[in-house]
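User: I'm writing a tutorial on reading structure tokens. Could you give me a worked example: one chain, its sequence, then its tokens, then a sentence or two explaining what the tokens reveal?
Assistant: Sure. Here is the example chain.
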Amino acid sequence: MIDISPIRRMLILCLSLSIVACSAETATQTNSADPALDDPAAPTPEAISPTEAESEPEIPAAERSDQPSDGAEANASETNISEAKGGDPALLIGKWEPIAYVRPDGVEMDLVELPKEERADLSWEFGEDGSVEAGSSIGTVEFQDTTFIATNKATGEARTFRYTVTDTNLFVINPAGDVLKLQRAQ
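And here are its predicted structure tokens:
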């Protein structure tokens, strides 16, 4: 049995945000009112190390915690990171189903065999009108380069998530570095 509590934590973070277009000032806010989400011991997004497959977007080695952080190497990898992330927001339109969850330490959990209800809680659907439904939450989204900005309608709290999208795969990376891998629903 897969322990999906870290996945639920990521989902709760994502779902608690009714995603709304926000101003540049709001977009720069990264502090959370929820101390559990601002855990100083939580790995940074640079510690991501998902297992790669040919059809999935590449997460560069520079983001893996097991890679050395030498200055020249870091500068070269920053270029690769910006080229490998984001994508055409129009590719997001449609329904996405979870296939894997990758912890910041690189451990990947297969989500394909989860019960239907739990998979539904982790599914995302993007509309042509800028709306998004993640699990049971509904909102809108604003895309900026390699990120999308989410604002909670109830609290006004803004969060930035990194993403990578192709025709068939979507990675949503939360501020703590957790990666939710999704594939386009059939």
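What the tokens reveal: The helical segments are 5-15, 24-27, 71-84, 116-121. Residues 12-84 have pLDDT under 50 and may be disordered.
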